[in-house]
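Tokens in:
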């Protein structure tokens, strides 16, 4: 009976250990805010959508952030539109802009765009907006 208890606790301990992340990068202590807009508000499948806005470093020191832009179609197709690293001075505000090339096969209906600002430890800021895709 004690062997079963020992192995049961061992399996439970291993499962708990494996559910933890392999590593966790410490946050740089950054601070960011973001805005996002699309143009046009309605686009025909196969054409580009402009995604633009601003990122503000509200930290009192220089920071380097990763910006990730994703799009989600009405039928649940998620795609990464862009990902880039950007350095900021204390209090600096920067504009960004990317083009999202929709495919002719894209699902018609409302689509969403999300822009996230990451530091070494996670997401600092996120903003979303939507546009309508027509065929």
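Residues out:
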């Amino acid at each position: 009976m004690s062997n079963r208890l020992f192995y049961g606790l061992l399996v439970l301990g291993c499962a708990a250990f494996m559910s933890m992340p392999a590593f966790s990068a410490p946050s740089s202590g950054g601070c960011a805010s973001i805005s996002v807009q699309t143009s046009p508000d309605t686009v025909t499948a196969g054409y580009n959508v402009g995604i633009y806005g601003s990122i503000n470093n509200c930290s009192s020191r220089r920071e380097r952030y990763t910006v990730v832009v994703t799009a989600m179609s009405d039928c649940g197709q998620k795609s990464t539109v862009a990902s880039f690293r950007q350095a900021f001075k204390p209090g600096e505000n920067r504009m960004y802009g990317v083009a999202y090339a929709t495919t002719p096969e894209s699902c018609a209906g409302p689509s969403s765009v999300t822009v996230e600002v990451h530091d070494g430890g996670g997401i600092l800021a996120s903003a979303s907006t939507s546009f309508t895709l027509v065929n």
